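Lab notebook, bench 4. We co-purified these components, and the gel suggests they stay together. Before we commit to crystallization screens, I want a quick structural picture of the whole thing.
Request: model the full complex, all chains together.
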Amino acid sequence: MENTKRIVPDLGVGMGLRVPHYAHILEHNPEMAFFEAISENFLVDGGKPLYHLDRISEKYPLILHGVSLNIGGADELNEDYLKRLKELVRRVKPAWISDHFCWCGVGGAHLHDLLPLPFTEEVVSLVAERAHRIQDYLEVPFALENTSSYLDYRHNTMTEWQFVSEVVERAQVGLMFDVNNVYVSAYNHGFDAFDFVRSVPHERIFQIHMAGHTNRGTHIIDTHGGAPIDPVLDLYRTTVELSGAVSTLLEWDDEIPGYDTVASEVVRISQIRDDALRRRAGKSESQRMATAKALSLIPERAGVTLDGHGWVQGGPRESAGADHGVSA
Amino acid sequence: MTSRQQRAQAEVGKNPSLRELQTWMVERLQHDRDLAKTDDFVAESERVLTGNDGLLPVETLEIYREQYWLRHTGALLDDFPGLSGILGQKDWERLVQGYLGAHSPGSFTLRDLGAALPGHIEQATYLPHHSLCVDMARLEWAYVDVFDALDTTRSLDADRLGAMTEADWETAQVMFAPAATLLKTRFSVAPLRRQLKRSAAIVDDGGKAPDVPLPKRQNAYMLLYRDRQRNLNYAEQSRGAFALLGHLMNGDALVPACGLAGKDVPSEAKDIPGKVGDWFAHWGKLGVIVDVVGR
Ligand SMILES: [Fe+2]
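Here is the predicted assembly.
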């Protein structure tokens, strides 16, 4: 596949597809620009997960977002995983597909986490070569997402935004730009979130992620619980002003509220996006850069704590244990 | 952990290769205690990680270690509500810690996490209600497989079934839905699991679910399947029906399968031919038999 700048359509503002909302979506067909499903939850042979996915993809544009690719792992890529993913891509026909700038395990172990990559030339080469190859193999535009992180390596030789930009340019893939992750990492590592927003290649942003998080005072955990907070919405405004009309998706994975609550946040983000696009239309590029600089944001450290529990991207799986059939 | 065991683990220098770094981190993240409480971990984290204004390097690593355990414990809890219900909090945690320590997660999907749990429990004889736990784990893992087994596009044609002759049944093969399997247990664990799940849903103000009495030993012969709404379900079978299903699922034609089932269960042997019609109707209604094909 050739040089992939923004070759994907703008789908508007959508919502992460989550199990507790299936019944509402299938019964009421609510208006929603698009949904994004976690690929791994549907890499199964059959049963309810694929049944639900098929029903929803008949009615809505559907994007696939992966969490297990392990693109930065020192082991070879998992071919069985990629084969299954390609089958799912053929079934769902998403306009693009994404995974993360991260590693998940090594030596055969898979920790089901988005572990931070060292920002070094060695890793840029590895990830860029793989990303390019994966996009060719899957035959669909492919994007990688900046993750939130809680630790930082001493041997990093570049900033995260330099790393991310270098990989997507070299691999000619898209950037899935998670604005909340920028905020979380800026808070945890003490950099300026607007430096990140300003420095990535905006024309390569395929999609934006928005989410809530949990502030524990000393650090922020990216729980995807709650609505995005105002400073994240400010970062989003600037991102849209710099990038234009990019599909945006709200992720909500922890203590997932009813469909309507999440949908009302989607509406709010949509209004912010419209507003930012109007402002973009009325501004020159140089003005936009000046605004981004002036808005430079230093996250406040405020102490809110939450009980410790493991969160999983995409919320609960549809599983045998949680099967809603009362019989078993 | 002793200091000798620690020395046997991966070490990491100031400028590690990607594999060295990741090997070191995986070992630390799978450690079963708070990393910040061990001096060696504090020192080596200092070499590799920066920490931040509020957290020491080892504390930033500890965030991931804690999440590792919570995430995997949670995934097992999702898939084994019956087993965790029998064991209660303390024994469940001990079991899961031992299991994850012995079986490092390797699949890309959490769905596979419990694959080795039934085997692990067989060895975990320290568990209270050990035999009951073995049976429950086997049931719950079987449910995981039935839950997302392949769908079938075949459907039983009543007319064609009616037109089958005695001779046809000598050779015809009965086709089953992929989402159907047999399980023999020493305890009646399927109804127990249902009760435990219901009980767990009714938690009082003190965070305690109502007690569910555990069953006495009594063999159970179960057909596990997905119903037409794709919900998991089970149907208890007589020993004869269970034996016949086993042979049919192995690919034996009906007439020879009846003979084999009669040998397995001599006390029911003479009744089997007279009951087969009802059994077939029952299995067809459940959606378990999906076709009969001539050979
Ligand atoms: Fe995200």
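The first strand of chain B starts at residue 173 and ends at 176. Worth comparing against the SEC data before the next meeting. The pocket of fe (ii) ion is lined by residues A 145, 178, 181, 209, 251 (CB under 6 Å).
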